[in-house]
Amino acid sequence: MARRSAAPNSGPAYYSRAAVSGRPGIQDLDDVEISPVSRFMNEEIWAPEKLPGNIAIVTSIGVFAAGIFFVRNFGELIIP
After folding, report:
1. Could you give the residue ranges of the DSSP H alpha helices within 1-80?
2. Contact in structure between 17 and 28 (CB atoms under 8 Å)
3. Is this prediction's pTM over 0.70?
4. Alpha helices in 17-50 (DSSP H)
5. Residue 11 — left, alpha, or beta (φ > 0 → left; ψ -120 to 50 → alpha)?
6. Mean of the pLDDT values across residues 38-67?
7. Mean pLDDT on 38-54
8. Membrane-spanning residues where (predicted)?
9. Angstrom distance (rounded) from CA 17 to CA 39
10. Looking at residue 8, what is its pLDDT?
11. What CA–CA distance (Å, rounded) separates 37 from 33?
């Protein structure tokens, strides 16, 4: 299948913070008054570059908890 490209002179698909910081009417993300908890969630939990690691941590905790649940409820079936 052929790869499609963007239309000529369409510009970038996203704009960096530096590109929009000097434009009037656009608020910089660091100037927004948000709580420390919201800032932590945005920077550490929902950040796209950290999402694969966070998913791996949640998956490992889920497998660990499921193992404990299985052994506590069905452990007598494992022991001869």
Report:
1. 17-20, 36-40, 51-78
2. yes
3. no
4. 17-20, 36-40
5. left
6. 94
7. 91
8. 51-71
9. 17
10. 72
11. 12
